[in-house]
Amino acid sequence: MLKRDESKFQKFLNGLKDNFSSFISKMRQIREKEKEEIALFILACSSILILFLITVFVFQAALPAFKEIGVLDFLFGKSWSPGYGRYGAAPLFFGSFMIVFGSVILAVAIGVFAAIFLVEYLPRGTADFIKPFIELLAGIPSIIWGFFGLVFVAPRVADFFDLPVGRTALTAAIVLSFMIVPTIVSISSEVIEAVPQQYRRASMALGATKWQTIRGVVLPTAKPGIVASIMLAFGRAIGETIAVLMIAGSVPLLPSPFYDYLDPVLPATATIATEMGETPAYSLHWHALFALGIMLFIITFVVNTAADIYVRRTKRGVIMV
Amino acid sequence: MVMEELPVQGQKAELKGFSAVLKEKRNLKNVELMAEESVREEKKLTLQAPKIEVRDLNAWFGDNHVLQNINLDFKARTVTAIIGPSGCGKSTFLRCLNRMNDIYPDFRMAGEVILDGENIYDDGSDVVSVRKRIGMVFQKPNPFPKTIRENILFGPLIHGIRNKDKLDEILEKSLKAAALWDEVNDRLDDYAFDLSGGQQQRLCIARALAIEPEVILMDEPCSALDPTATAKIEDLIYELSKKYTVIIVTHNMQQAARVSRWTAFLLTGEIIEYNATETLFETPERKETEDYITGRFG
Ligand SMILES: Nc1ncnc2c1ncn2[C@@H]1O[C@H](COP(=O)(O)OP(=O)(O)O)[C@@H](O)[C@H]1O
Ligand SMILES: [Mg+2]
Prior knowledge:
The complex is a heterodimer. By secondary structure, chain A is mostly helical. Chain A has 2 domains: 1-69; 71-316, MetI-like fold. Chain A is built from 11 helices and 2 strands. In chain A, strands 1-2 form a two-stranded antiparallel sheet. Chain B is of the alpha/beta class. Helix content of chain B is 43%, strand content 22%. Chain B has helices at 11-35, 37-48, 90-96, 127-133, 148-158, 164-177, 181-184, 197-209, 227-240, 253-259, 277-282, 287-293; strands spanning 50-61, 64-75, 79-83, 107-115, 118-119, 134-137, 215-219, 245-249, 262-267, 270-276. In chain B, the strands form 2 sheets. A 6-stranded mixed β-sheet of chain B has the order 6-7-8-3-9-10, sandwiched between helices. In chain B, a hairpin with a 2-residue loop joins strand 4 (107-115) and strand 5. The two termini of chain B are 24 Å apart. At the A-B interface, helix 7 and helix 8 of A face helix 4, helix 5 and helix 8 of B. Residues 90-91, 219 of chain B line the site of magnesium ion. Adenosine-5'-diphosphate is lined by residues 61, 64, 66, 84, 86-92, 104 of chain B.
């Protein structure tokens, strides 16, 4: 009797001890967690602060340009020749727009189809073998792409369209599309792969063909993720500088007619990169280059926000990255 | 209503338990029989002709011989249940009936599945039209991430129906046939995932009905549902059998006893016994069947 009681008591004590130690370790965990949270909070705050400071600084540097040139003259002026005091940025933005628009269209057409092909048509092993190479493509530095465009793409564009010089908006759009296609392929293929198998089966069981299933169920389900991949690609395209500087032709004029992809253009990023070094600080030209920068910033911000709102608005159950 | 596990009792008592279920079902049916005698008579005639004949069916996944020498006739416009323990090949068998196994690369098959006199595995046979004639409802409700309307009309649209009035008609008809219309007619453009599990499964049934199939295959359609939703689907299955040939896989034997006219017992890829449901549950011919329905099976 007594012995059993004793062991019962022992058990009770042990239980208490266990409870206590688990309580302590729980407290510790909470404190660890709090520490982590505080650290993360500080890091997050500081990154927001840095972003904020950059924005303020660029705005400040750009402000005199807007004041002196006038916002409308700056945005819509058709002539950019700082040597003559003309700061019309329209050709630069239009050049950027042409290149980015063209490359995104090309890259989406190639990238989304490639992603569908990888996931839906290739055997799994083959697809898994190919994917790392596509990701490798994304890591090639843009200067290399510039060389590739200069040596390989530009002469072919010149030959094909019978142009004296192959450095055109089209050349830049083509090379840039190669640069952003891996982003689209790798994210889109992941999203397409994440579409539950049961949707495909339900569709097939209704008598849909494979392609009908892809178009009717898989792509709509994966759409927000695909849009997100396109937005990322857009971000890279609009910020791209060196490659487009090398192959776009560097002529700060509006193409004529305005849609002529075979004219050379000078995109805004390339303008900043070439002219910043030769400009005295705090001159009007210097301020104008910052104004170009802030415009690029605003464009990216607006596009990203729009995409974000779109992705958030899409209903539940739809596949995200 | 649905007992997932049989209480461990003597086998006599167990068989009696099924008798109760069956007797109740017979009583219910007698009432209806009087009301719809003429329908019944007509049905009796069609009952004789098999809708689907399975001949010497063998199936493999890789080296795994999943189905062995299956010969079975499915009667038209009635409910046939396929019961058997987990992994015995029920789902694989069901998928053989609408060629859904074609999507698995390591699946192989020999034998014939004859729908209204034509082998659906003939070279000339078209998978799309086979699946259009033989609809399927899955274990887990799997509506598309679309609205109720889009879910129902997906099938008709891919089969080329464009007329708006016709589509509206199909929408209403299918939802009514799946006993869902009253619950959703004021929110057809709501997202399908806003429905309850049972409603989602009825939506999937309605989606299958929208392409006007002749046969409906159901693979454990209630296994993810609560008892109330299950009861609704079981009633629905009974209604559907007036017009369609229904083949239902279930591992719930009470369910098989409640809803089906015919029952096939499948064990490790072989049909052990196939008989009228009453006979199979009350006086099973084979020892394995008796062991299985009395819950003494490993
Ligand atoms: N897609 C598949 N690939 C490979 N083997 C499968 C596949 N589906 C089922 N099997 C195998 O076939 C056998 C029967 O499975 P299944 O038809 O799902 O049984 P049940 O539906 O009766 O539980 C199991 O051994 C299972 O492992
Ligand atoms: Mg199964």
